[in-house]
Specification:
single chain, 132 residues, alpha+beta, five-stranded antiparallel beta sheet, 1 helix
């Protein structure tokens, strides 16, 4: 029985299996990094939209007829990210719509229903809050 070269074949087979596993792990890692990046961008847009809602609540505490920003507000200043907030009133309930946009194009819209009562500073009570 001729056993010359069996060790070489076994080494090549092992090397090919290890190489395939390495490629598979690299592919998984690349996919996971992309998922994390997308998640972070989405959360940043959500936080910027949330900042718009907080800005609207602040404005409504001083003026219950406040109707919105009238345009985009860059937040934080110099970042290229912005929010645009509008307010509308139906049957005494305020609807706040805040669109948070990143410079990268990611965008999240929040809709908040609230009631405004009392006198200045008005009390703003959140009825519900949802992502559109």
């Amino acid at each position: 029985m001729n056993k010359k070269g069996v060790a070489l074949l076994l080494a090549l087979f092992t090397l090919s299996i290890v190489s395939l596993l390495a490629v598979a792990f690299l592919e998984l890692t690349t996919t996971d990094l992309q998922i994390v990046s997308n998640h972070n961008l989405r959360n940043q847009a959500l936080y910027i939209a949330d900042a718009g809602v907080e800005y609207a609540i602040y404005q409504l505490r001083n003026n219950k007829n406040w109707a919105g920003t009238g345009g985009q507000i860059e937040f934080p200043s110099g970042s290229g990210n912005n929010y645009n907030v509008t307010c509308s009133s139906i049957s005494g309930k305020i609807t706040i719509t805040s669109i948070g946009s990143l410079a990268t194009g990611e965008q999240i819209t929040l809709e908040v229903r609230a009631s405004v009562t009392g006198s200045i500073p008005y009390q703003v009570k959140i009825i519900y809050w949802r992502e559109l």
